[in-house]
């Protein structure tokens, strides 16, 4: 790691959707007694390479979470889409600093078990190639469906499932966010957007522990893992 390299982490957490039912969005569901998003923030704060963590949340929550868990963390108002929340996060992070960040990571609030080894490998690849993401091969055969039937069986050997943290050189992320804003484009994944705009997005080996908590049963499994491993996962 180069001296004085500045690394920003953005954790978009401004979604209101809850596939869990009830009023609490999934990123605020508790894991081991603390909200999932807080678990992710704390893991990044544990890492000395991280200069700053920005968490876009729903506007109405900004005041409620203002007493942030450390001076490296700031909560800001997110936007209408995930991508807009990332843009708001970047604006907020850079408007308060004279110098820009060198590398920027974007992480799903609902992936508490990412490993710091994977994070560092992804940062290294982003420094070298401009953009990088952790991906894992698919255990299941994947079919393309039409009219409730298999239209085509996809070649699993060329497919990966994208995880986070996805990492970018600052110039690359700024380029793709500016282009997406101009074109009013949306994306569920910044790595895919970077590839769409012609950047090389390097694949780093992810791991199956870094799963995304989206359904109630994922949370049940996460609680068991947390209890068993004290939340350390394979970090
Ligand atoms: O709902 P979905 O799983 O696609 O959201 C992905 C992530 O983006 C979630 O962490 C969610 O909180 C975040 N998000 C956001 N701002 C929005 C919508 C979603 O930060 N307006």
How would the blueprint of this fold be written?
Blueprint: E1 7-10, E2 30-31, E3 34-35, H1 36-45, E4 52-57, E5 73-77, H2 82-95, E6 103-106, H3 116-129, E7 131-137, E8 143-146, E9 149-153, E10 160-162, E11 166-169, H4 170-183, H5 190-196, E12 201-205, H6 216-229
Parallel strand pairs: 1-4, 1-6, 4-5, 7-12
Antiparallel strand pairs: 2-3, 6-11, 7-10, 7-11, 8-9
Bound molecules: cytidine-5'-monophosphate.
Account of the 3D structure:
It is a single chain. With about 240 residues, this protein is an alpha/beta fold. The protein has one domain (about 5-135, about 160-230): Spore Coat Polysaccharide Biosynthesis Protein SpsA, Chain A (Alpha-Beta Complex), CATH 3.90.550. The protein has helices at about 35-45, 80-95, 115-130, 170-185, 190-195, 215-230; strands spanning about 5-10, 30, 35, 50-55, 75, 105, 130-135, 145, 150-155, 160, 165-170, 200-205. The strands form 3 sheets. Strands 1, 4, 5, 6, 7, 10, 11 and 12 form an 8-stranded mixed β-sheet that branches. The protein has a two-stranded antiparallel ribbon with strand order 2-3. Strands 8-9 form a two-stranded antiparallel ribbon. The longest helix has 14 residues, at about 80-95. The chain starts with 6 loop residues before the first strand and ends in a 6-residue tail after the last helix. Bound molecules: cytidine-5'-monophosphate (C5P). Cytidine-5'-monophosphate binds near residues 12, 56, 81, 109 and 188.
